[in-house]
Every structure is written in structure tokens, then in C-alpha cells.
């Protein structure tokens, strides 16, 4: 395994591993490996290539995507204005911009409302001697440009005070005890920072502590921090997630249902694409998350969104007498012009992710849940309406198998062409024909380490990387005839 000492020269005296490949529970690894080496796939690419691709996938998943993607509020300002403001703001982030010349921000010719900022790394950083250990989630955020917030800190040196230089390491397997003074278990170095809070301020306060505990200054992966940055004008969202709402194709004046909507990334995008004209109904079954949808709608100045806390499996009401008069759920069948089912899923496409705690039982629990939601989605969609199904996972069971199941279960659904189509084709092994595989979009992460930025690269090669170096994601579009 490559180590910080090997990677970063003689002056480093300790060895810390750098982003090991995603660790799965053995039975989950076997399950995924079987899917990625299924008979049809082996016949297409051969055993060696299939195995190599699977191992590469686990490596790519542990690394952050090659670009930070934000969706620009083009319903409020032009893309150029937003880009200029973003350049100004990022230039102020000394840690991010110093010595790097003009801030590179790219637009995407097929996705008209995104701005892409390249991520550089892994970089040569020699870890400080004092260590702050953070939880895996917090560590993943640090790899995507965040500072360390107090709730994410698990361990800090005994005498740490504000102003101290520290190394930030992730406890990827969740073994470190909160409040420890050191941690000898498996940890991954993420970069150096300056403590903003003392150890006592983090662990000995009467109330739960909020706010930045360590400001990251020398990260292993360099991305800008978007904490509180232009909240009205930019929304941090992975590129495939932005593609979803474009594929749905919402039109002003329509009535649209987002069945699993929180925190409202796609809901707000749908409303923005409609010019805030029409009705977007957002459902989520967790009340606190529904509040986030409302907050996001308000920050982005979108009035056509109404959010409800509701279990979407029960969102259809065939008895007109039981339909509430307020326009909320449950709804009569065929109530919506378009339905988005951005389904709860095993999330195995999320990046970076160095250890996944899910059991096989948990991973396989999503397929039946998604099918129940799918039944409701089809019933709520009007004839000739559009249904988009998406997940942020890489399993065959939650993606291509769901499409094959839907096409055989609902004869009135047909698979549709997607615009834009910037992802790859669907995987073989689930019974989809080659034509059907070409209609869906599977984003299979690839990663090109880049420690010197994108100097010398032409626009088309940068775009190819932006389209491929994303989280793992899947999109299928149907029409109900
Ligand atoms: C993938 S996330 C949605 C992300 C969201 N579409 C966005 O772009 O911001 C899935 C969401 O489904 C919600 N969920 C899970 N089961 C549900 C159900 N039966 N009814 C409604 N929401 C559900 C979860 O609470 C979670 O917020």
C-alpha cells in the first residue's frame, strides 16, 4: 500500500495509508463481485477484464470525484453572473486559491446550469505530529473540501489548544471512542489543519458543540469549501443528480410529484426548470428532512413547491371521498404530469467512501422497497406522462433489474431516450436488451488522480473526465402510454 512517507518524501517520519480501496463486509463484497462478474458480462468482456474493473471500482469509490459540481440558480441570475461571483468568492479562500492563479471553473455544454471546479489530489502533504481523529462521514466531507466541524471530532490530543497545527485522520471503520486522546486503530490521513477550538471546548462543554473545530489548510485532496457560500445562487449537487431533473423535463404549468424528495436538491431544480410556474409536490417520510426541503425552497426563492411528510408507498387513494381537500397526499390515480422516484437505495455509489458498514441483508432490502414505491409512482402518473427512476448506487438489483422488472410488470410503460445522456450504458446481466441498455444511464465512477490541475488538457478531455469521474448513479426514464 502506498504510504504518506513513500509518497511525500524523506522528511515524513511516520507512515499513514492513503485512501485504501472501499472495504465492504465479506458477504457484500461477494454479492457485488458476483453482480460485476455475471455470466452475460463475462461473455462480453472476459473474466480478467471484469475482475479488474470490479477491483478498480472499489478503488475509485474510496476517492472523491474529480470535480466539485454546483447547480447555478439560473432562474435568478445568468450563469455568467453566478460564475463571476463564484470566482470572486473562491479567490477569497486563501487556503484553496493561493499560488494557483485564476480559479478554474468550467461550464458543461450539455448541462446548462452547472459549474464544475476541478479537484486536485492526492497532494504531497507531510502529516503533523499531533492528530485529530474524525468520524468517517466527517472525513469524507473533508476530502470534498469541508472543514472539520466539532460534532465530527472523535479524538484530539490531550493539550490541544486553538491555534495548534494538527493532522486530520479519518477513523474509517468506526472504532475510535469519542473523547479519546489518541487512536492506534486503522486511520487514513486526510490533511493538516489549524485547531480553531481547544480539546476542552470540543469535549467538555455542557451543550452539544457546533461550529468549525479544525480549519483544514493542507488537504490531501484540494477542493473549495462551500460552507455558507452564495447559498441563493449555488447548490452543491453531484453532476448525475443535476442530470436527473433535466431528463425529467418539467414544463411550466405542470403538476409534478417528487416522491422521495428530501433534502430537496432535485425538487428545487425541477421548480427552477419550470420557472417557478406550476406545482411541485415533494414528499418525504421523515419530518425533519421535510423541513430541509422547505428551507431550501425558501433560500432559492421558489414558491411553487409544497412539501409534505408522507409515506409515498401510501400516496395513492382510489376512493375520491378519502382524498383530502388541501391538494396534499394521498392523491387520486393519474394526478401528475411527471413523477420522479429518486429512490432510497444502498448508496454504494457515494464517493468518497472507504468503508461501508452495511450488511448484505441491508443492501438487499432496498429492491422490494423500491418496487412498492414504483407501483405507487405508476398509478399516480397520468397517461402519456413521464416517470424517472434514479438511484445513487451501483448494484444491478437496484438499477437494471428494476428496469427489467418494471417493463414486465407494467405493460403500459416504455423506456425513453434521455436528454442529456452523458453517462454510460446499462450493465448486462439483468435481462435488458442492448437497445434498452443504451436508453438508461449508468454512471460508473472512474478516477484520474491529478496533482497538477488540468494544465495542457483540452476542453473535450476535461469534459470526458467530468462525465466519468462522478459518483456512481443510475437513471431510467419511462413514458406511460
Ligand atoms: C435518495 S434520498 C432523496 C434525495 C433527494 N431526491 C434529493 O435530490 O435531494 C431518498 C429519500 O427517500 C426518503 N424515503 C425513504 N422511504 C420513503 C417513503 N416510503 N416515502 C417517502 N420518502 C421516503 C428518505 O427519507 C430520503 O430522504
TrEMBL record:
Taken from the record, one Pfam family name reads PUA
Keyword RNA-binding on entry: yes
CDD domains xrefs? AdoMet_MTases, PUA_NSun6-like
For the SAM-dependent MTase RsmB/NOP-type domain, which residue ranges apply?
Answer: 159-481
Tell me which residues this entry annotates as catalytic. 392 (nucleophile)
UniProt key word Nucleotidyltransferase: no
List, alphabetically, the PROSITE patterns matched.
Answer: NOL1_NOP2_SUN (PS01153), PUA (PS50890), SAM_MT_RSMB_NOP (PS51686)
The protein's UniProt keywords, in alphabetical order, are:
Methyltransferase, RNA-binding, S-adenosyl-L-methionine, Transferase
Any GO BP annotation: RNA methylation
Q: Name one GO molecular function term.
A: RNA methyltransferase activity
Which SUPFAM superfamilies does the UniProt record give? Answer: PUA domain-like, S-adenosyl-L-methionine-dependent methyltransferases
- Positions with a binding annotation for S-adenosyl-L-methionine: 260-266, 284, 319, 342
The family classification in the record reads: Belongs to the class I-like SAM-binding methyltransferase superfamily. RsmB/NOP family.
For this entry, the protein name equals NOP2/Sun RNA methyltransferase 6
